[in-house]
């Protein structure tokens, strides 16, 4: 009897120590090659940053994993001894959930999805605020009044980005249009190039995009036109023409999540409501041509000289407006949101009433197009 | 929307996008004319793309980069020739293997080169005088690199070579009936080797164009299926270098228009257009296109063993 009691106590003691006593071996499953210089590249940069920072952490990764085969790769990582697994594509969602149910002692985190479990959290760093800030600059820079936007797929994430961008454009230039072309691929440089060329042929003179290569930046620069980088710092591709852009810091999320596991805050039992939706104020995303450079110095003067009569701030230069809005969204007590009502879609319907903000659910399922967007919009309500 | 601007952008983009297709197709035509199918075009192109980028970035000389790309393409093709001509392996299997191998190897070697802009890309030309002609000037003589013009010129030369010289007769007879060619004293093995290697050389340049002129930068998998379009274009061109010119540029135009027309036609439909077109051509050549089928080299895909029929 005594022996049994001792054994039970020992087990309880071990259980109380839990994960914190162990080393963490985290496995990352990527959908693309780590060299895409876009989505997967950014996740891998973050993985290396946290790996180097903590000696209790070991990381491994597999790349270019087909979305249907994620479970097989999870099996492999579990066999290799991973006790935390990150899956970084929307299409991995159901496979990750199934694996989480099969491996109740492993912690899972799925990026960009919405299904969770006791041992499965979700996380996402979203750019819509950053796109809005880029839109302010783009609206001031266009001479033709037409801004080109190359989108990957017409899904809510990309539509949200384009609408936020367009709302920024229209705030400083109420008559400007954002012309959109879709390439139906996350990574296809040739498609991105021809889409950008088509937009140039139609008279667009400033460019932004959501796809995983620096192609649009390069095409625009060839013609001497300004653009905004996406995902990775693209300043080096065209130092004279990259005005600003969207930068991600996945390491902020990875670090927070892994440290909390290490400290025993997160366990295999309490992740059902853990959902990271991190934005500017958490430092998970950044506005800039490269880290630390919010606006390319070459464009400071033209943005300072572009003064508008703003309904809230009165006479203000776009340069100042960018930093005002950045401060409003960057401080922990956020006082502004791009989708702050009243917001109308391009068909004239009121989408966000005066004084309201959009809910998280409304944001991640958003299908409508903001006023000012021109071009095809599959699935438009 | 004025017609001139549409014409200019469509033709100009068709040329720019069609260049790697043209080079690749010309090469594949030669290999297949000699009776060897090489499905490794995608692999040879991506190896060429990586090599051209790495060499140009290191030396600052895009010409040298393209030359090395040609060399690598030729080397990869030599591998295919050895397997299929000397060892008489299945041409389709060997070609597929070459494509996968090329994609993998280029991705591996390219790790450190990702995400870096090319300092010295192949310059775009503005041809003095000609570029000033209204409409035609911006359409044909601006924003193109030298490879556009060399490619077209090469197509004419290769057509002459194939159909107007003794060498051409030798190549075609090796592809039609290697036994007969052998009996006539033509070195079947040598001809096949030369044609396959030449095909790889052109594919390498086509790939190099992507990374030092069209993009210009290196990313893993940047050929994105162009090698497979080349295979279709070879059939579409009915193994004729001159038809390859308009085939490649027509495909380029379709590709460009599939983005240009998005404002008017559903993008999903447009995205299908170039591929739909390829399927239609293949189907037509199967149906009534006897002429096309007749032009396919008779011994295409078959290894040659002396004394066997």
Please outline what is shown here.
The complex is a heterodimer of chains A (381) and B (309). Chain A has 381 residues and is of the alpha/beta class.
Descriptive labels:
heterodimer, A: 381 residues, alpha/beta, Rossmann fold, 2 domains, six-stranded parallel beta sheet, four-stranded parallel beta sheet, 12 helices, B: 309 residues, mainly alpha, 13 helices, 0% strand
Describe the overall structure:
The complex is a heterodimer of chains A (381) and B (309). With 381 residues, chain A is an alpha/beta fold. Chain A has helices at 2-17, 39-53, 70-79, 93-102, 128-141, 156-172, 189-201, 215-222, 250-262, 300-305, 318-330, 360-364; strands at 24-29, 57-62, 84-87, 107-111, 120-125, 146-151, 177-182, 206-210, 227-231, 242-248, 275-278, 285-287, 307-310, 314-317, 343-344, 350-352, 373-374. Chain A has two domains: 21-125 and 250-282, Response regulator (Rossmann fold); 128-247 and 285-374, Rossmann fold. In chain A, the strands form five sheets. A six-stranded parallel β-sheet of chain A has the order 2-1-3-4-5-11, sandwiched between helices. A four-stranded parallel β-sheet of chain A has the order 8-6-7-17, with helices on both faces. Chain A is globular, with a radius of gyration of 23 Å. Chain A starts with a helix and ends in a 7-residue tail after the last strand. Mean pLDDT of chain A is 91; it is low at 12-21. Chain B is mainly α. The mean pLDDT of chain B is 90. Chain A binds chain B through residues 33, 35-37, 41, 179, 181-184, 187-191, 193-195, 197-198, 200-202, 213-215, 218, 222, 232, 236-238, 374-376, 378, and chain B through 5-6, 8-9, 13, 17, 107, 110-111, 114-117, 124, 210, 214-217, 219-222, 224, 226, 255-256, 258-260, 262-263, 266-268, 271.
């Amino acid at each position: 009897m005594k022996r049994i009691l001792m054994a039970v106590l020992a087990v309880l003691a071990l259980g109380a120590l839990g994960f914190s006593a162990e080393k963490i071996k985290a496995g990352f499953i990527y959908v693309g090659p780590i060299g895409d210089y876009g989505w997967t590249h950014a996740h891998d940069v973050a993985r290396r940053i946290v790996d180097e920072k903590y000696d209790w952490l070991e990381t491994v990764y597999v790349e270019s994993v087909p979305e249907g085969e994620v479970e097989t790769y999870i099996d492999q990582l579990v066999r290799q001894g991973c006790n935390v697994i990150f899956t970084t594509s929307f299409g991995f969602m159901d496979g990750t959930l199934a694996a989480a149910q099969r491996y109740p002692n492993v912690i899972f985190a799925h990026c960009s999805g919405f299904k969770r479990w006791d041992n499965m959290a979700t996380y996402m760093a979203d750019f819509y605020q950053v796109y809005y800030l880029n839109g302010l600059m783009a609206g001031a820079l266009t001479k033709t009044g037409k801004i080109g936007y190359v989108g990957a797929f017409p899904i809510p994430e990309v539509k949200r980005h384009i609408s936020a961008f367009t709302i920024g454009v229209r705030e400083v230039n109420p008559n400007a249009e954002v012309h959109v072309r879709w390439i139906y691929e996350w990574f296809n440089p040739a498609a991105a190039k021809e889409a950008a060329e088509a937009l140039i042929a139609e008279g667009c003179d400033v460019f932004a995009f959501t796809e995983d290569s620096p192609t649009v930046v390069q095409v625009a620069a060839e013609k001497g036109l300004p653009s905004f980088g996406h995902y990775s710092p693209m300043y080096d591709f065209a130092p004279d023409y990259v005005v600003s852009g969207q930068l991600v810091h996945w390491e902020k999320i990875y670090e927070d999540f892994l440290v909390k596991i290490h400290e025993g805050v997160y366990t295999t039992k309490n992740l059902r409501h853990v959902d990271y939706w991190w934005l500017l104020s958490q430092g998970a995303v950044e506005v800039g041509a490269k880290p630390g450079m919010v606006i390319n110095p070459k464009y400071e003067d033209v943005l300072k000289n572009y003064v508008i009569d703003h309904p809230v701030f009165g006479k203000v230069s776009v340069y100042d407006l960018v930093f005002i809005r950045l401060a409003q969204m960057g401080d922990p007590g956020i006082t502004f949101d791009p989708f702050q009502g009243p917001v109308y879609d391009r068909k004239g319907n009121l989408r966000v009433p005066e004084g309201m903000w959009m809910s998280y659910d409304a944001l991640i399922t958003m299908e409508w197009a903001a006023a000012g967007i021109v071009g095809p919009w599959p699935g438009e309500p | 929307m004025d017609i001139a601007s549409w014409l200019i952008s469509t033709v100009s983009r068709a040329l720019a996008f069609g260049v790697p297709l043209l080079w690749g197709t010309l090469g594949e035509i030669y290999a297949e004319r000699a009776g060897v199918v090489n499905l490794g075009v995608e692999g040879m192109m991506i190896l060429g793309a990586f090599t051209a980028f790495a060499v140009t970035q290191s030396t600052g000389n895009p010409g040298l980069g393209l030359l090395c790309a040609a060399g690598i393409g030729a080397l990869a093709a030599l591998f295919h020739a050895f397997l299929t001509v000397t060892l008489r392996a299945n041409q389709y299997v060997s070609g597929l293997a070459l494509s996968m191998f090329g994609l993998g190897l280029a991705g591996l070697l390219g790790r450190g080169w990702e995400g870096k802009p090319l300092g010295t890309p192949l310059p775009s030309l503005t041809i003095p005088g000609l570029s000033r002609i209204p409409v035609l000037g911006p359409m044909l003589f601006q924003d193109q690199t030298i490879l556009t013009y060399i490619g077209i010129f090469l197509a004419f030369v290769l057509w002459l070579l194939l159909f107007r010289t003794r060498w051409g007769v030798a190549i075609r007879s090796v592809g039609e009936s290697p036994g007969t060619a052998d009996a006539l004293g033509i070195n079947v093995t040598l001809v096949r080797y030369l044609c396959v290697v030449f095909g790889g050389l052109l594919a390498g340049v086509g790939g190099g164009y992507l990374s030092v002129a069209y993009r210009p930068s290196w990313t893993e998998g940047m050929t994105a299926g162009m090698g497979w379009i080349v295979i279709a274009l070879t059939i579409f061109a009915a193994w004729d270098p001159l038809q390859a010119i308009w085939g490649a540029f027509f495909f380029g135009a379709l590709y460009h228009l599939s983005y240009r027309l998005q404002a008017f036609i559903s993008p999903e439909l447009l995205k299908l257009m170039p591929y739909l077109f390829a399927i239609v051509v293949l189907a037509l050549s199967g149906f009534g296109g006897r002429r096309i089928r007749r032009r396919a080299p008779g011994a295409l895909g078959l290894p040659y063993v002396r004394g066997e029929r």
